[in-house]
UniProtKB/TrEMBL annotation:
Source organism (scientific name): Allacma fusca
Protein name: NADP-dependent oxidoreductase domain-containing protein
Native organism taxonomy: Eukaryota, Metazoa, Ecdysozoa, Arthropoda, Hexapoda
Any matching Pfam family: Aldo_ket_red
PANTHER family: 2,5-DIKETO-D-GLUCONIC ACID REDUCTASE (PTHR43827), NADP-DEPENDENT OXIDOREDUCTASE DOMAIN-CONTAINING PROTEIN (PTHR43827:SF14)
Residue ranges of every copy of the NADP-dependent oxidoreductase domain listed in the record: 1-147
Coiled-coil ranges from the UniProt annotation: none
GO molecular function per UniProt: oxidoreductase activity
Amino acid sequence: MEELVALGLTKSIGVSNFNAEQLDRLLKEAKISPVVNQIEVSPYLSNVQLVDFCASQGLDVTGFSSFGSSSKGTPRSDQPQNILDDETLQGIAENYSKSVAQVILRWVIQRNITAIPKSVTKKRIEENIDIFDFTLTLEDMEKINGLN
């Protein structure tokens, strides 16, 4: 990838699903540091330590599966419930007159993480962008972090 940067075929390098140990090894060896690590980030998998590590190394984080894999159909047996039906998230959403999905995306954005939600309907895509007219309180952020 570094050769592609040198050739001008790409402007920067990113990685996906690297943990802190892998990133540390890469940062010690690479001539060109990656600028982003794409990882799963949801209230049930908040990845706080890895996000903090990335920030300490100057790497941005892009979060995928912000609604968790259980938001589609029947939750897996190792997941407590469909994240969109979570009572804590529903209560927070009601306080802001927002959907649970909007609260989750706002939580991701407030953590300085780029969110890439998967949506296919026009209504949901429009809803996903409508998250910049409110800010979650520190208390609400901590409640969501507690769902990890």
